[in-house]
């Protein structure tokens, strides 16, 4: 039995790969239950399912309702922000998102607004002006629901942080997930006292990435897989720190006892934990995992924290620094 408790803050369970569909082709049976079983056995005890559009957010909520350990976000990804205007009535679209978020809050399932933000690497999907307009609009959702924000930032740190600064009174806390930015980008984010940084395999590809991650204080970090993407590959700089391994097979030779080669899944968040600890030179991985777990609860599951637990963990964090 796993002793480390982890929360995977970003899983794209709405992706067709978890239905066994790759590039439009059915390669194996839908296997979400099997994937979840591996995650729970590995010490993952909660997962946040990412919503990236109105329809995807509806699906994420439906998936979250199937298990008490699943939660979700409601929002529109920067590359899909055209949907506000393509529906013909941006305000109506906003109100539909708000209604869905409120429904999910009542059900105890929606824990953040997002995934929203800016992505200047993929402007062919949505121009920057449209992205900025509807990133800003989604702060209204956070303000109306009192939810934290689940954020996306790619090659857009300056505009992203400017919009954050302008709207900092409208959201309680947030995480900039799947962080792949520079040390300068990291430091800009860390200036916001209520901002955390989410790290996954894409954050750990190169030695430069590892150097940036070294500079993220553990008390300002969360871990994730962003499954089925962002796996830690054998070519990644931090692969030598990975200790937890699972047997894998190609999708064409599907075996429910094995992970699908090339498809990331939540059990592998333990590898992210191991690489972060390794690159930071932290030997007490158990203590580090407790700090990360606490960070995640503080933002997304604040009802789980009481003052005694807070004080206890604050003491542990001090001990780690000394």
From TrEMBL:
One of its GO terms (cellular component) is cytosol. Keywords: Hydrolase, Metal-binding, Nuclease. A divalent metal cation 2 binds at residues 152, 177. It comes from the Eukaryota. Coiled coil: none annotated. A divalent metal cation 1 binds at residues 115, 226. The keyword Hydrolase applies. InterPro entries: DNase_TatD-rel_CS, Metal_Hydrolase, TatD-like, TatD-type_Hydrolase. The keyword Cytoplasm does not apply. GO terms for molecular function: 3'-5'-DNA exonuclease activity; metal ion binding. Belongs to the metallo-dependent hydrolases superfamily. TatD-type hydrolase family. This is TatD_DNase domain-containing protein. The lineage of its organism: Eukaryota, Viridiplantae, Streptophyta, Embryophyta, Tracheophyta.
